[in-house]
Amino acid sequence: MTWLKFSEEEFSRTIINCKDSSASGPDKMSWGHLKHIIKDKSCLKNFVYIANVCFDLGHWPNHFKESKMIVIPKPNKSSYDSLKSFRPIVLLNTLSKLIEKVIGERLQFQVISNNFIHQSQLGGLKLKSTTDTGITLMHFICTGWVKNLPTSTLAFDIA
């Protein structure tokens, strides 16, 4: 399979859903900044060119690998004297996150369109919802009933 070049449309379509209020990474650039920058078509072309060259060369620059970890307090905790009261998050450079999101969009499209994922796999996929999960669960239960099998469901939350 040959490598298909990234397009400006892919980058523009992917960045639309990114929240402007998210924290910036080591590059100090937020999604709002990046959205403003790519309004200039020459900047957008350069970003797409960078992504394509990275894949052509098979090289991911160190700048894209840099990250910053910050620790934020979990809301509504009675006490903040234990580690469980905090959540560490890792912030990556914004341009590398955008390229990774475009890659993720492509992978998800290929995986779904080629039926590489089982029908019951619903988590983390676009166009799948809790309604789809409920319908799938009911299908499994009714299939068990038709086959005169005892059917039960166990649900738990892992925190």
The average pLDDT is 86
The helix-strand sequence is: HHHHEEHH
N/C terminus separation:
41 Å
Instruction: Report Rg.
Output: 21 Å
Structural class: mainly alpha
Question: Which strand order do you get reading across the main beta sheet?
Answer: 1-2
Question: Care to describe what's here?
Answer:
By secondary structure, the chain is mostly helical. It has 2 domains: 8-116, no CATH class; 118-159, no CATH class. Helices cover 46% and strands 9% of the residues. The protein contains 6 helices and 2 strands. It has helices at 8-15, 31-37, 41-57, 62-65, 94-113, 130-146, and strands at 67-73, 86-92. The chain is flat.
In brief:
Helices cover 46% and strands 9% of the residues.
Key attributes of the depicted protein:
159 residues, flat, mainly alpha, 2 domains
